[in-house]
Amino acid sequence: MQSLLDPAVLFFALGVFAGLVRSNLEMPAAISKFLSIYLLMALGLKGGFALAASGFTASVASSLGLAVLLAVVVPLMGYALLRRMLSGFNAAAVAATYGSVSAVTFVTATQYLESQSVPYGGYMAAAMALMESPAIIIAVMLANALRQRQAVPASHAAQMVGVSPSGAATLAGPGSLGASGSAPMGKAGPHLSVGKILHESFTDGTQLLLLGAMVIGLVTGDAGKAAMQPFSGDLFKGMLCLFLLDMGLSTARNLPAVRKQSPWLLAYAVLGPLVHAGLALALAWLAQVPAGDAALLMVLAASASYIAVPAVVRYAIPEADPSLYVSLSLGVTFPLNILVGIPLYTQVVLRLWGS
Q1: pTM for the whole thing?
Q2: What is the mean pLDDT of residues 223-229?
């Protein structure tokens, strides 16, 4: 209950309430963008300062390695299950959403750990950055494979009715494809190479800012930390409260779309993150990573992307329905993690680790 009295969580609840009662409260788009940039920059700096203080130890390598492993395993698990409920393209898009991570959920978790006096490695910001791209790459590769499988029977059918390679039908009767102008099987999505996806991921503004700020923090060390304390330390909590107020408003706007989803998908949006967090807990226990890092690994594994993945997937997998993966991640999983998940994961780790 104490975790719900945190100002950041309460501002998120205020945003949801304001949206549900149709208040005219809103955050200007320019300010929302500024808050995102600020949080990423401050988070990167904090991670760099912490890494400068600790150095690249075996514990750091273990935590980052587990993060990458989870970033690969979670979307593959998700796709295997979701394929039973959804089309291949929708399953790939939702799996990418739940295989990637939410920076805001991560930032909120770090604030919760600090409020509970639970130490964690600032380098976990690097873990968050590493976990964002693998799910997107896997989803695009799955979509490309689906398109190739669909292209084979489509090509065979075209040959059977006399369609030339250029797509023009040689039969001109009323029942021919040329006369009806029959549409292809879904929208034709782009075949993106892994190299292009990696380039887009690591040159994306959010990724570049986060990693760049981390490098600056690492290079400047204690002197940089002291100089930036008013910016990256003192202002951080207030800025996070403002951003979560805006996220609460966004969550409320997505709730009507949530009601249209099937009960099975809603169950996945609730239970899937718990399973992913459980997997992260087991791996962290086996590797004996520090308690704070284990809690953040659980949060990252349980989170879902509602910014990075939709931005890429809408272009890379246009066959998928955006209202599906955005409404589930932002309307169900994000508030679940903010209100219940973060304190739950942290308390489980503290009990198991005996902290």
Answers
A1: 0.77
A2: 92
